[in-house]
Amino acid sequence: STQSEAFFRQHYSGAHGIVWLRLSTLSRDAQTCDLDTFVRIVLPTITAPFTLLTTDGDASVPSDLAKGTVDQLLASPFLVSWYSQ
Question: Which end of the chain is more exposed for a tag (fewer CB within 10 A), N or C?
Fold first, then answer.
């Protein structure tokens, strides 16, 4: 399952510092995952440096993720680093 857009607006808008996000395994099956929603809803609201930490999933990063999601995330001038497990 994935979190709703409302969840991301409430809990992640304007995120900065260390940001943890559930990776899940949905992206391996070409399904929308939390990272897709984060990039679409939250990333445009971020105006300060952040480090992304994605865990809790079996997807390979970045190959199992939607190319557009990864491209947008990596293009963010505020993304300092991205760690995944």
Answer: N
Checking if the pLDDT of 78 tops 90, the result is yes
Number of folded domains in the chain?
1
- Record the pTM: 0.92
Helix segments in 1-85, DSSP class H = 5-12, 34-37, 67-75
| pLDDT tens-digit map of 31-40 | 899 999 999 9
Other C-beta atoms closer than 10 Å to the C-beta of 25 total: 13
**Which residue segment(s) compose the domain that 54 sits in?**
5-84
